[in-house]
Specification:
single chain; two-stranded antiparallel ribbon; 6% strand; 341 residues; mainly alpha; Helix Hairpins; DNA/RNA_pol_sf; 3-stranded antiparallel sheet; globular
Amino acid sequence: VMRTHGARQQRDAVRRAPREQMQSVFEALNTLGSTKWRVNKRVLSIVDRIWSSGGRLADLVDRTDVALPEKPDTEDEDKLKKWRWTLRAAKKENSERHSQRCDVELKLAVARKMKDEDGFYYPHNLDFRGRAYPMHPYLNHLGSDLCRGVLEFAEGRPLGKSGLRWLKIHLANLYAGGVDKLSYDGRIAFTENHLEDIFDSADRPLEGKRWWLGAEDPFQCLAVCINLTEALRSPSPETMISHIPVHQDGSCNGLQHYAALGRDKLGAIAVNLVAGEKPADVYTGIATRVVEIMKNDALKDPATDPDAARARLLLDQVDRKLVKQTVMTSVYGVTYVGARE
């Protein structure tokens, strides 16, 4: 039921939990495990074409290694030192590429094996926080863009008005680049303004303008382009059967739980528990607040306030990316050392 990884206290806690208390957990895991999936053959065929051509597109790793630099015929120590650094960097790059190639091959091997199946299922279990994850390690719907792009629901549903609207929003979310921060109407407008690019991506994904490759999640974007094209070209888009999962991402789930439990309205707004015109971003908000504090500290006299010198030195280093990891893990008990690292 729960991944304990040798943590005896966690394992004992699960064993001591009353059966009736665990019933809702079992039901939730059974619901996730009973969802039927299948391989999106059209997207998989595009992935195979890119991969057989050497990768390098849609965030796929290059299948060839970086050429190792030849040792210079010299006794100049500076040149030899530079060569050693270049050689070390090339070997590191090749090692990373090898790992990434192995990862892609494992995922594609599973997809190719399962592509002709009517459907298959993913058993799930929990981590120590209560988050549910598929037990299959390679190809699953919580994996990379490649995994999510080649997977779809085996049992489709008619889109309806709501489904067609959400498919357009989903496409804008996948394209990202700031588009995902627009209002819902803004995201729908983005999709409708790029219908020609969407149709071209669906009809000629590698021979056309390749608009889908500009997306932050290209393979998922391609899958939605194909599905949306089929829907909009059908006589009745709202009755067309769609198999596309529209992913919903939480905004710092840990803080969402705290805001909900504490009925914290300000916190709820920051983590999108309260409807707003545009998506809120708690990480940007916290980064902005930290910068304000540091600016105030930087104005103080370093001779009397030790924080002043540090604030002046680090002021330009604080951004959303820096604070995200610490804020995200603070609700799970991250230590000072863990946050620092």
